[in-house]
Design goal:
This protein is mostly beta strands. Strands 32, 34, 35, 36, 38, 39 and 41 form a 7-stranded mixed sheet that branches. A 5-stranded mixed sheet has the order 1-18-17-16-15, with no helix packed on it.
Length: 615
């Protein structure tokens, strides 16, 4: 067994994400009044979909397996429920079979043995039951059809501890052999499988988790031969709070895995893709996320050699939760992301994506659950999305960018045409300030960039300068493509951490110099059309804060700071300034804590805002 040094590798590949969802063709919900969830989705030969999940709304009682068959527009053709008893039947995965039918796996409570058993249901193309099997005590979490028409089921078995369980059956569901994987790490013995696939060599790949410390779990990957005997294993360190949720053999014979882990860059969980070669050597790992908590539940290789990742994200401040979908290239570089959810009666968004599939003719279907307006019980939720006409990517030279204010950074820009026709787009950029929802606008955009059908244009090096007196912190650098000032087709971003470079004078908006996106088509941004004073950032602040304002015309400008008694404590600007965007840093090192007011006077324009100094 090998333990892979994954934490350092993942942190070195941390990237941002797209900010805008791809086009939603349609959404559909399925179920009743008592709670339903989709765990699996596949596209059928007629262009429709099969969705496997669990239902509390229909069936024998409590929860049952639930299979829904739709047409190509997501409208229901039929639905069926399956269960072992009136007790709970916990569905986990559905796969299509070679004869057009389906196999469903999970676990159910058996009154005969007074325990949970692995429970498998085999149906024909119409969802009618061909056979069911109780495969003994344990929990079934994943299933796959084997080349000989049989099935492989992975899950867990419980005794005085928990071990991985692997069951091979024939085409009739009768057990051929059973294997138990009981990895022990010191005194700890907890192992569970969440995903399994037959591999091209006739063996199997199993993904799940193993216990490494008290109450701590890491990812666990096992490769076996056709008899279920171990060829190699890998432990994937995931900060002690992770499991490998999905695995697929890729076209090159390697493996792609989906999971999540805590990121010190964003101080939250991020969705993660991990790529191994056929021998279990780690090739790369990529994180995807923002300041929210993101996770990955499902991953599939796409026809362009990239990957589609589906999971969820949550804002713990608002408790909003949404489906989270990530599209990458072949080495995990971000191409786009999307979010999908419905809104509850009190305005919360609730949703999670548990399965994703690429659809014929382009696009994707994402299945999971969402909560409808007027109810707190979930429905099966299916979202049909299409890729943008053109997608944008930015790949920094340094995967973690930390520079002093006033210096530049470089990256490769990419525009990918996802259509059969030549596309022409503009690209432009914004920067989000740290600790706030305020934006800076770098001064240039590029117009009329042409990309041929199914081609990717590379722009390198793109060099982005920064103003000399930016406040220290992590800035979000965002790139857009579409029609400038009208329509956003796609977007992407990464983080740039600025630390202060002492001794530089106050700089202005014009210092966001940019070259590399086809400079012959560069267009300077116009001057602001109105006077404005922005809220300082950060606020509250300790010692230093940044104040920004804009001038639509040359003006005599005064920017002054007053205490709560109305006494002036600082004059930051006093003189003639040209039209444009301005920024100044107030150093309040010698000023005592309290509430202060900053006042901008420019010609006939006057505005005052409040700030709080805390030491």
């Amino acid at each position: 067994m090998r333990k892979v040094a994954l934490l350092l590798l993942i942190s070195s590949f941390l990237l941002g994400s797209s900010l805008f969802a791809q086009d939603t063709l349609w959404t559909r919900t399925y179920g009743g009044d008592d709670g339903d969830q989709a765990y699996s989705v596949c596209q059928t030969s007629d262009g429709g979909f099969a969705i496997g999940g669990s239902t509390w709304s229909f069936g024998l009682g409590q929860s049952d397996y639930y299979l829904v068959r739709t047409d190509s527009d997501g409208d229901t053709l039929w639905s069926k429920t399956y269960g072992l008893s009136f007790h709970q039947d916990e569905f986990r995965e559905m796969k299509p079979t070679a004869d057009g039918g389906f196999v469903l796996a999970g676990y159910a409570f058996s009154e005969a043995v007074d325990d949970w058993v692995v429970y498998v249901v085999r149906t024909d193309a119409n969802g009618d039951t061909l056979w069911t099997r109780d495969l003994g005590v344990g929990q079934g979490d994943a299933v796959d059809e084997t080349e000989d028409g049989g099935f492989i089921i992975a899950g867990s078995i419980f005794t005085d501890h928990t071990a991985m369980l692997l069951i091979r059956t024939d085409a009739n569901g009768d057990t051929v052999w059973t294997k138990v994987f009981d990895h022990q790490h010191g005194e700890f013995r907890f192992n569970a499988a969440e995903a399994v696939e037959e591999t091209s060599d006739g063996g199997f790949i199993i993904a799940g988790c193993t216990q490494c410390e008290p109450w701590m779990l890491d990812g666990y990957l096992i490769k076996t031969d056709a008899e279920g005997d171990t060829l190699w294993t890998r432990v994937c360190p995931l900060n002690g709070f992770g499991s490998l949720h999905a695995v697929q053999e890729t076209a090159d014979g390697g493996f792609i895995l989906a999971t999540s882990m805590y990121s010190e860059m964003t101080w939250s969980d991020d969705a993660v893709l991990i790529k191994y070669d056929a021998e279990g050597n780690l090739l790369w790992a990529q994180c995807y996320g923002t300041e929210l908590n993101e996770w990955g539940n499902s991953v599939r290789e796409t026809t362009d050699g990239g990957f589609i990742l589906a999971g969820g994200d949550m804002d713990f401040m608002t408790m909003d939760a949404r489906m989270y979908v990530v599209k990458t290239d072949a080495v995990g570089n971000l191409q786009w992301t999307g979010n999908y959810a419905r809104t509850t009666p009190d305005g919360m968004k609730v949703g999670d994506a548990l399965s994703v599939v690429e659809t014929e003719g382009g696009g994707f279907a994402v299945a999971g659950y969402s909560v409808p307006e007027g109810s707190w019980m979930s429905d099966m939720y299916l979202v049909r999305i299409r890729v943008p006409l053109v997608s944008i990517a930015m790949i920094p030279d340094d995967s973690v960018i930390v520079i002093p204010a006033g210096e530049s950074f470089t990256y490769e820009g990419r525009l990918t045409n996802n259509t059969l026709e030549t596309q022409t787009v503009d690209v432009w950029f914004k920067v989000k300030k740290p600790y706030s929802n305020h934006w800076l606008y770098p001064p240039r955009h590029y117009t009329g960039l042409t990309v041929e059908p199914f081609q990717t244009n590379s722009y390198y090096p793109v060099t982005q300068g920064t103003p000399g007196r930016l406040y220290p912190g992590a800035y979000t650098y965002i790139g857009y493509c579409g029609t400038y000032g009208d329509e956003i087709v796609d977007s992407t971003y990464f983080y740039v951490t600025i630390y202060e470079f002492e001794g530089l004078s106050r700089e202005t908006h014009s210092d966001w110099s940019l070259t590399g996106w086809g400079d012959e088509k560069v267009a300077e941004a116009g001057c602001p059309t109105t006077f404005a004073l922005s809220r300082n950032y950060p606020n509250p602040f300790n010692a230093r804060t940044v104040i920004e304002y804009q001038l639509p015309e040359a003006s005599e400008v005064r920017l002054e700071v007053y205490n709560i008694l109305g006494e002036k404590v600082a004059t930051l600007v006093n003189g003639q300034e040209q039209a444009g965007y301005r920024s100044v840093t107030w150093d309040a090192t010698e000023i005592s804590s309290g509430i202060y007011f900053y006042k901008l006077t420019a010609g006939d324009f006057t505005e005052t805002k409040r700030m709080i100094l805390v030491k």
